[in-house]
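Worked problem 6 (solution included).
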Amino acid sequence: MKKIILSLATLLAATAFAPQASAVPAFARQTGKACSTCHFQHFPALNDYGMDFKANGYTEIGKQAQVKGDDISLPGIFNASLFVKARFQKTNGTDGVDANADAAKTTHSGEIQFPDEFALLFGGRVTENIGFLVESQFAGGGTNFLAGFKMPMMFAVGESGMKAGVVPFLTDGLGASYGFELLSTGAVRNIRVSEHRKETSAHQYVFFDTAGAASGMAFVLYDPKFHVAYTKYTPHHLVEADSNVGGLDAGLIRAVWTPTMGDFAMGVGVQSYIGSNNRIIDGANPVAYVDTKGTALDVQAQGVVGDMPVGVYFTYATAPGSTATAVNLFNAKAGDRKSTSLLTEFGIVPNKVTVQLAYRMADNGATTLSNNNAWTVGGIYHMAQNVQLSVAHTKNTGDGRYGAGTSASNVGAEKGDSLTTLMLASGF
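Solution. The predicted structure is:
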């Protein structure tokens, strides 16, 4: 069991600093519309319009020149954008000592992370019913230029706005939900409303603690009132892994109801990861097998109270524990890993200044020191629609602790119980 888990940890370590670019001004160039057209209060959270644009495969085009003729409809410009993040992080523990007895500097002393991300993105229309998105990572720990790719192919079913399609994709860290996901609850790694992602989203805490590489196909049925997706995938980033990794034995089922209730656009979803004996490859032990099992529920509400934009995001997720004969990709511990979180944000100056408050209840699945409950407060200020300053502060009230980086740990008296992040993020 120890060898299997160490082998799995080696594989997953490659995704620990995976890129997460979440704003794509290439789409603003193609459509000729401002960032706020698609985003609710701030990027990367999507509003109804943004979800519809994404669900239709990034194909909407504005007044931009086109190459148009029989069986071709391309933008006249190859639209691109850059996404950059710079962070300062501070935890409140004591700098420890490394194996060589040298003083080890950590986030406890404060750490500048620049760039935390630096991604080049291309995306938009391929033809009337097909779009694409490419993410290329230049810095931030990525080991391959092609960090992510997808090519949604969506076709009308009747005249009600319903569409059906398939989305081939690969990603080095954003998860199987990267193929098709519309909500902003954190069900896909890069679309969440707080930079403290694992502290404010149960999906992020359970499914994206370490795992995230995925390649496969999402089969989609989309309607403005609901959508469902069935994704078959392998838990690898095929650009970096040997392509001979077996079949698409892992699966993800996603179903979301999107009604309107009063002044609020709602999203109510369920998510189920399925799959057993998925073949994985890592450098130390070439072949191992893992399960991909877990379930999640999420609800989001985006609307207005008085003149103030308000967003509410509730998530619950759990992944069963591992055994000596069945290692769960999402949870190497014996007990169930689970979390419930609630985040509320208020646009005190609409589309300019947002404040956030979140609470997470969590259990990491360990036999001792398993309580990971935490409070998070934060705020976002938009210098421009595509430039934001944010601050987030988390206080763990259970056993959760922060070590040298930002991953929760429970070992060592020098660990801290709070994390503060200052961030500048921009897409252009």
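Discussion: The two ends are 47 Å apart (CA to CA).
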